[in-house]
Amino acid sequence: MQKVIVSNTGPLISLEKLGDGYGFIRKIYREILIPPKVAEEISEGYKNFEAYLDRYQITDLILIKQVTDIVEIADLENLDEGEIEAISLAAGSGLELLIEETMGRSIALNAGIKISGIAGQIGHAFNAGLISKEEAEENLRTLLKNGRINNAVFHAISNVIT
Q1: Is this prediction's pTM over 0.90?
Q2: DSSP letter string over 34-56?
């Protein structure tokens, strides 16, 4: 089941909030590709990107991938640079995109890009038998408590894991 996915900044921040967020996502993905701007955004407050990777022990999980072409998608210019690069990377590589921001999700979906957020990945990991019901529920509660998901998402995913 190990595969590759592209990520925007938001889902990585959500993983940071979970006790073993990067541990659970490792059970699903062997690599998470991020564009340079996302690397810059997630490593703010750290000495450099490598320090961020070291902090979460993910030097073998997250890889920076250059974006060769910015895709031409309606309303893309309304997004921030990290989202634009992440959507372009996903579109150019044909990979699924981890993204949580509403406008970015909508634009990516309209462009035919398969998307997910971390809450969806928790449901996926539970359904695949990669995490326990207790771990899934705790992760969802943590995301809700930290403002990373809203009540509607919490209840929708909670219903999938019961």
Answers
A1: yes
A2: E-HHHHHHHTTTSSSHHHHHHHT
Identify which of 149, 153, 108, 132 has the alpha carbon closest to the alpha carbon of residue 15. 149
Kindly report, residue by residue over 114-147, the tens digit of the pLDDT: 999 999 999 999 999 999 999 999 999 999 999 9
CA distances (Å), origin 96, targets 13, 52, 125: 18, 23, 16
- Report pLDDT digits (tens) over 21-77: 899 899 999 999 999 999 999 999 999 999 999 999 999 999 999 998 888 888 989
C-beta of residue 162 within 8 angstroms of C-beta of residue 55 = no
- Residue 110 has a CB neighbour count (10 Å cut-off) of 11
| 119 backbone dihedrals φ, ψ, rounded to 5° | -60, -45
Fold of 3-118: Rossmann fold (3.40.50)
91: left (phi over 0), alpha (psi -120 to 50) or beta: alpha
Question: Residue 83 and residue 128: Cα distance in Å, rounded?
Answer: 28
